[in-house]
Amino acid sequence: MILVYAGWTAAALMVVAMVLSLWRILRGPTLPDRILGLDTMFINTISLLILLGVLRGGTAFFEASLLIALLGFVTTISFSKYLLRGDIIE
Amino acid sequence: MVIELIVAAFLLIGAGFAFIGSLGLARFPDFYARLHGPTKATTLGVGGMLIASMVHFSTASGWSLHELLVILFLFLTAPVSAHLMAKAALHLEGRSQGSKQGEEPER
User: Fold this and answer.
1) What share of chain B in percent tops pLDDT 90?
2) pTM of the model as a whole
3) Do B88 and A32 make contact, defined as CB atoms within 8 angstroms?
4) Under a CB-based contact definition with an 8 Å cutoff, are residues A51 and A32 in contact?
5) Which residue ranges run through the membrane (chain A) (predicted)?
């Protein structure tokens, strides 16, 4: 029972964290701010998926979180590289 | 019961650190300060969640160590992406300061 209450409290905290990073993406004055907000949102998504995996059970959530971690790294690197060089693959 | 309490504590620690990291991202005044906030969400937030998941699934059925993959991957890639983002911000700042007075800075 205590796990359910703690899980829902943690889920509420994670939702607020996602909204804060979405606010930074929408408002961020510079482009690196928006990239950082996107990176934070990817990481919060990983946490939220693992939380759902603990609450619901099953390993599909874990594999999805691994995939999102990989995708988030590639996205951040390619956006930063584009800002630095104006090109991704030279 | 004890296991459930440990899992709940680690879940709350992880979610709390993720929330604090995003709060830092939203509230700090400039980009280099903002870069400092989400690193806490990366290391301690995801770390706490994954430890909770490891404890939970290890007690349910045998050892469950595949969460270590995510921890290892995140700890390897987080410094690289933070370094590249800081480098991009420095690059843009230098380019907008180097432009002339009448020109629109490219931001």
Assistant:
1) 28
2) 0.86
3) yes
4) no
5) 6-23, 35-55, 61-84
